[in-house]
Q: What sequence folds into this?
């Protein structure tokens, strides 16, 4: 199919339909409202359910219910709305229920602003709610990658029986780009959802979907089982891209819109003979620690660039494990830098290293 | 490798977003890479509005434009805000019906087009943005008028098909204004 021009939020909605999403529960919030708006118009044509709940909390609990019944289900929101959904998300992780959650991030803390931001990094990558759990989190940089990942995300969620979050900044939601919705994405081998509460028909014992374990030994066993699953995910699902690494003096770590701005900066730096590489996390949980082993010997330092005051930098430091100096450049609150600001940050850091 | 970075600025209701979208759609129809990004938020009719469009044979990276090849100025405040965004040697197309000042820089090419006055003469003040598009495609030869009309036909559908002739006239008027005043 030819590429069509779509707004990010609408493309994400259509990608969910293409990914087999059969139920959506949400509540409007800028800058992602076009996503539920699109699904309100189109979901029923594909045999799916769209429901605008009375609140974010109601929406995420509807997701819990639909997922428990075995449906492919999604919700979407933006930063403060995602904060409200955390109770439902930790319950789903505890009850091992799959779902796809789209977070079109805006500035915070609190109600913050409505402009693009990556300041939810820690909320997204540290679970976000209570308890020993994680959500698998993708942070794509353009619309094609975003729709491909959303289509795949339903399989990933089902495979691991865990919520998957797509964390994009508001700019990705609001921009338009040509996108092909029909590109084939990898399919996972999925087991039948024998855990779904869809009636026993008198043929099997009832199943329970639950995150309450009053017996501490039972909860410890459950938690270690989850930890084992998260270790498998860390081993198998790290995703990243390495750009311009050959002979690089410096490596920038950036994701989402920031990585695109960095790419433009790298082109300019390259013209000046300054060799800088880009390590782009595509999954932010699991964080692509493996990528750091591929950083060439020529690199003298790492510059982390984020649309926040510095959150991913902690993961960069863990992965770097003290090997190289780690610097930071960030804009936040909805401010998005121009490539020139990255160029200056690179030159400042390289100047300090020499 | 062709790359054209465009900023469209004006006030809400002037069709500033649509101008940018039309160029992005036309680029996609020509199998070029493109990215359209609007200012968004509590903007309303009468408030400020702007969008950026990048069109390129190469992959589009930064959605943020620091140095634009072409800037559309639809009202006076936008001139103050965006004159500095034109790259040296770039072009600025100014709606001289509403922005009375001239550019201060001498390293950019300025085109003053009274798009509102022309639109009134055509009998529909709402096509001022299409006159600007006409001027732009005349200057850049980036797209044909027919390519823009094709997109409008598709987006208008049958319900608004009667508006195609006036938009056709508007694009033509913009082209003609450049031909006659900026040879």
A:
């Amino acid at each position: 199919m030819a590429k069509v021009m779509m707004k990010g939020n609408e493309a994400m909605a259509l990608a969910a339909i293409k990914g087999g999403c059969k139920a959506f529960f949400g509540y409007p919030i800028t800058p992602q409202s076009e996503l539920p708006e699109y699904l309100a118009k189109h979901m029923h044509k594909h045999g799916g359910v769209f429901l605008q709940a009375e609140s974010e909390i109601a929406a995420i609990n509807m997701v819990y219910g639909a997922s428990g019944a075995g449906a492919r289900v999604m919700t979407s929101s933006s930063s403060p709305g995602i904060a409200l959904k955390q109770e439902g998300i930790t319950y789903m992780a505890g009850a091992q229920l799959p779902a796809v959650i789209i977070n079109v991030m805006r500035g915070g803390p609190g109600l913050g602003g409505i402009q693009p931001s990556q300041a939810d990094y820690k909320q997204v990558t540290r679970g976000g709610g209570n308890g020993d759990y994680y959500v698998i989190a993708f942070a794509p940089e353009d619309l094609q990658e975003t729709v491909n990942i959303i289509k795949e995300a339903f399989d990933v969620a089902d495979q691991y029986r865990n919520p998957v979050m797509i964390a994009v900044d508001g700019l990705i939601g609001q921009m338009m780009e040509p996108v092909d919705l029909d590109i084939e994405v990898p399919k996972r081998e999925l087991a039948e959802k024998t855990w779904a509460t869809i009636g026993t028909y008198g043929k099997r014992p009832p199943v329970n979907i639950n995150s309450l374990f009053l017996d501490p030994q039972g909860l410890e066993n459950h938690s270690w089982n989850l930890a084992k699953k998260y270790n498998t995910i860390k081993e198998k699902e790290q995703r990243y891209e390495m750009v311009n690494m050959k002979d690089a003096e410096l490596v920038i770590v950036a994701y989402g819109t920031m990585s695109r701005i960095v790419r433009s900066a790298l082109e300019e730096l390259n013209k000046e003979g300054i060799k800088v590489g880009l390590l782009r996390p595509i999954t932010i949980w699991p964080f692509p620690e493996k990528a750091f082993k591929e950083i060439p010997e020529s690199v003298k330092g790492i510059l982390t660039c984020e649309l926040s005051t510095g959150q991913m930098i902690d993961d960069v430091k863990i992965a770097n494990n003290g090997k190289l100096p780690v610097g930071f450049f960030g804009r936040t609150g909805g401010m998005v830098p121009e490539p020139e600001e990255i160029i200056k940050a690179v030159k400042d850091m390289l100047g300090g290293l020499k | 490798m062709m790359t054209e970075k465009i900023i469209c600025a004006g006030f809400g209701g002037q069709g500033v977003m649509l101008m940018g979208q039309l160029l992005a759609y036309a680029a996609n129809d020509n199998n070029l890479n493109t990215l359209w990004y609007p200012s968004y938020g509590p903007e309303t009719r009468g408030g400020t509005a702007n969008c950026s469009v990048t069109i390129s044979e190469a992959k589009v990276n930064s959605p943020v434009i620091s140095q634009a090849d072409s800037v559309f100025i639809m009202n006076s405040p936008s001139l103050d805000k965006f004159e500095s965004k034109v790259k040296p040697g770039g072009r600025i197309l100014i709606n001289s019906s509403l922005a009375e000042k001239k550019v201060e820089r001498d390293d950019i090419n300025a085109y003053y087009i009274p798009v509102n006055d022309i639109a009134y003469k055509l009998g529909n003040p709402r096509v001022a943005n299409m006159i600007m598009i006409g001027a732009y495609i005349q200057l850049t030869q980036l797209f044909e008028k027919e390519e823009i009309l094709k997109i409008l036909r598709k987006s208008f559908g049958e319900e608004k098909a009667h508006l195609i002739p006036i938009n056709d006239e508007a694009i033509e008027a913009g082209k003609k204004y450049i031909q006659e005043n900026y040879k």
In short: Residues 135 and 178 of chain B are 6 Å apart (CA to CA).
